[in-house]
Amino acid sequence: MPAMSRFGRLFAIVAWIEAFTWAGLLVGMFLKYVTETTEAGVWLFGRLHGGAFVLFVAVTLFVAVKLRWGWFRTLVALASSIPPLFTLLAEWWLKRTGYLADPGDRDAAAPEPADLQPTR
Questions:
Q1: Is residue 59 a contact partner of residue 10, using CB atoms and an 8 Å limit?
Q2: pTM to 2 decimals?
Q3: 5: number of Cβ within 10 Å
Q4: Which residues contact 120 (CB under 8 A, 6 or more apart)?
Q5: Could you give the CA distance from residue 91 to residue 4 in angstroms, rounded to a whole number?
Q6: Alpha-carbon separation of residue 67 from 34, 43, 63, 100, 103 (angstroms)
Q7: How many other C-beta atoms lie within 10 A of the C-beta of residue 66?
Q8: CA nearest 29: which of 39, 19, 21?
Q9: Closest to 99 in 3D by CA, of 56, 70, 57, 59
């Protein structure tokens, strides 16, 4: 697996921030609607998550162009911002498949067609 590029690290950091603010918003909604103790969590994390969501979308589009993801990976990464904490799954998937690395490093790590031939 090739090392993450600086753009890949940027995507990973923003994905974690988006997930953290999602978690905070979920806790805030629990406190507001279930325990009915405070609205402060929704007030704070609602704003933070809104900003993190917009940042995640912008960074995803920027990184998708820079790292040449193609439309499928880009759409999956964008869609991961909607369900809670799915940006962590997208970050894991993209890192594991080498798509957070520079395209040249990713291509160099791919096996050559001759490497895929069975040995005798």
A1: yes
A2: 0.86
A3: 20
A4: none
A5: 11
A6: 43, 36, 6, 7, 6
A7: 16
A8: 39
A9: 70
CA–CA gap between residue 43 and residue 57 (Å, rounded): 22
User: Tokens 């900003």 — which residue?
Assistant: 51
Q: Which amino acid does the sequence have at 33?
A: Y
Vertex 83: Cα angle to 82 and 89 (nearest 5): 105
**Could you list the mean pLDDT of each consecutive 10-residue stretch along the chain, which spans 120 residues?**
92 98 96 95 96 98 97 98 96 96 76 56
User: 67 is written with which tokens?
Assistant: 């790292």
| 1 Cβ contact list (under 8 Å, min separation 6) | 95, 96, 98, 101, 109
Position of tokens 């067609």? Answer: 113
Q: How many Cβ atoms are within 10 Å of 93's Cβ, its own excluded? A: 15
CA-based radius of gyration for the chain: 18
